[in-house]
Input
Amino acid sequence: MRHKKFICLVVALLFLSSLSALAETKKITTMGSYTFARIRGNVPTEKVMKTLVEKYAADIKAGFEMAGYGDLYQPFIDQVQTATFKDKQLMPGQTFMWMLFRSHGKVKLVQDVEWAGAKPLDVYVFTVNKDFKNYEFIIPKPCGNIALLGITPALLPAVCDLKVTPAKANVNEAFTVDMSGSKNADTLEVSIFDAAGVKIATQALTAASPKWQTKFDKPGDYVLKAKAANALGPVTGPGCEAKVHVNFPPTCQLKISCTVCTDYVGKPIVFDASGSADQDGQIVKASFEVTDAAGQVVDSFMDTEAPFVWEKIFDKAGNYVVTVTVFDDMGITTGGAEPCRIPFTMTQKRLFGIVEFGPMLCRGTYTGFIFARGGILYKISPDTLDFILTVGGAIPTQGDPWTAFLMGNALLSVHAGPAFFSGGLGYSGKEQTTRKGGLDLVGQVGVDVLQKPVVGGIFAELRAPIITPDRSFDEHHKLLLGFRIIF
Output
């Protein structure tokens, strides 16, 4: 017994000497001399430790107040009886914030302590929770001292993370709101504000379901503000806000070179969508479409380069509608609004001038003539049936008895594509001074070889006299190779 008391005295002296420098960490190399509570047996149990805490509650309270943790006393007392004591070893060099011990019957406090023993120190460890903080206490097994090892947050502040994709979309296209990057949050919430700052929607999310899809039916800029919260309170700072833009649809504008296009069949008409615009992007293409009176598509054209103009030639008269749809760089059209549409009427010119000329052979000796005629061409049924009325004359390439004479035609001309066949009555004057003029039966076969800017063709013509005593076929028929221009 005397030997044991001597060892405790030595340990106490070493312990007190380690406390001499208050401004420095106090190094303790032994434990068990200045016990806070008397412990029977070499290795006290958890049950014994809890009993001692209850027995020395007043001293513990005084010690906590000395350490500046008076408000921790009651949670300590309330929780220690149900706390789980765990075995642990403190390695040499381990520090703890403060420790309560007893000297000469009085409660003492030592702060900023380091275990500097040669071997690990066996301790009980248990945790007391207060104000979202965990206070880790130890009780060294060699004695009943109570020490605060450290303080850690029991609950970390919520971390808010908001991501919205895409950053730009069209009207009624989905945006994905994602708060899965948020941490330590019990509740999540997203609110949407328009450009004027007016809240238009709020959506509650959870850690288990942190994503939400939404869409907007109006273009413009929107701000999404999120809130992540736990028992420590909400977080609405950095990382909790995102901006998105809902694409403004392009504005379509269409002009047409005429809406009552008189005599325009075969002539170019210009459809101009160059005035179309997009306030938050650019026009990248324009789709033109022409439909007839029955709504059937006559022709279409996609223009992918500015200035978005289409020039078209119509080969038939009628009532038409031209429609243009413009596309911006988001691939959107006019946002559900009606595309630009303009109705127009196309009429075909029916009355044209016609000029014919070329060489001619007159029967007799098949003497050569040069002829020229002028007149009118009326399209009875465009591209199918024409009426031609021409008058002109012919000049011989030889002298007497051949003479210049008048001639004219009144013909119906049938078309089969570029080919045409004409027939009707003609009049030929006397090609010799001794002959008489009269009516002819006229037949033509030819082909149009020009279409723009005027129609031009080549034809062969046979003129056969209506036989009378004065005009026989053998003596009065004529062969012509002609060129004609219709304008």
